[in-house]
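Quick log. Single chain, no ligands specified.
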Amino acid sequence: MATNSIFFGNPVPISPATRGKGVEKQWLGHFALKTKPMYLRLSNGYRARAASGTNLKGIEIPRQWYNLIADLPVKPPPPLHPKTLEPVKPEDLSPLFPDELIKQEASNDKFIDIPDEVLDIYSLWRPTPLIRAKRLEKLLDTPARIYYKYEGVSPAGSHKPNTAVPQVWYNAQQGIKNVVTETGAGQWGCSLAFACSLFGLGCEVWQVRASYDQKPYRRLMMETWGAKVHPSPSTITEAGRKILQMDPSGPGSLGIAISEAVEVAAMNADTKYCLGSVLNHVLLHQTVIGEECLKQMEAIGETPDLIIGCTGGGSNFAGLSFPFIREKLNGKINPIIRAVEPTACPSLTKGVYAYDYGDTAGMTPLMKMHTLGHDFIPDPIHSGGLRYHGMAPLISHVYELGYMEAIAIPQTECFQGAIQFARSEGLIPAPEPTHAIAATIREALRCKETGESKVILTAMCGHGHFDLPAYEKYLQGNMVDLSFSEEKIQASLANIPQVVA
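-> predicted structure:
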């Protein structure tokens, strides 16, 4: 555990939140309406027809984010101060986050208004399309009906700007000049750099070394939007130097990169930290995905029997599934909700549910989550965005409550599914959603055997245009399945803090 932590500095006073309570304000339309709004388009012109022969009306951008915590019968365990083991207070987080994000992190409000400035930027790419994968269905010869919610139409090519934009906006409103972050595959770093370029903030990114080397064009995207990018571990921070002393040629991990970014934010008064996944406020912002998708499915007269998404930290999975879990809790629908993770980093399927640090150096609060241990450094699989030792605490809690299930799939099967998807649907997926695609194909083939015509909804969270070296490796037959050693994971689990619940 590092000697420096986030728990110091003068607390920043928390200003009152301004949140709308009316459900009638939840959707953004083109006009001011006093009655239920009309939905004028399915998407911003991208593959607007999810089913041929259906009279579709468009879906508007949600006006509010949805907070699943408000509807859970058992509230999630709070994050703990690592020194006192007491629940974290707002002032403990103020060195890292602006006031409004701290309030959102602990909020029990069911809906939180999306600021108009954020909605205006969302409108550059939202609503995103819901697409029926008819050609994939034909290729698999399955009676299943497959739909995917495609987030790759954003400027950064993934779902990550859904939270990058509001995070930077709230920092700008508080007068913050710079933000720092970590990134794995680079989707989050690109999204934060994009958002900072819109609001005039400085942006500094620590990118996991394995992805920094594998994906140079993501680094160039970040730099094009004005960010400064470092490979992690780096010699810039104390946390990075300690890791390099132990393993000078290590591939890095998201946990290490988080430690480096948090260290810099905690030591500079004009700098805050932004996180691309895991935390409650990040998952909250991503619910625009599921809120849109609920309306899109309703518009075409479909109800999903199975919802599938990839999980690393969990933001894309939560964004699609949480609004559907709300409807499930209300007894309106009853889909199976399935998370898919890599076999090389299986926090849900192989980890333990315990309090652990969110980073490698032990600078964050202790969070109750499914974890492989904060010391665990996954093998350098091509799905860099899924190489995280833990799972979002809220997703972990939902998993423990039994509202979802989880499986792990090796990367060669994922890329096999990605090739089938690309050659039938035309879109090249990022390595991360190939896990959801592989699980979707598994289920569709089961339907072929049983004759069931299930409706499968999957999260296609980004394109793979800058991940082509991974595809080259697969196509040349050089990709191998990586897994963790039992000895390695047991050693990591042994270092989890001992917290009596």
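Residues 434-450 form the longest helix (17 residues).
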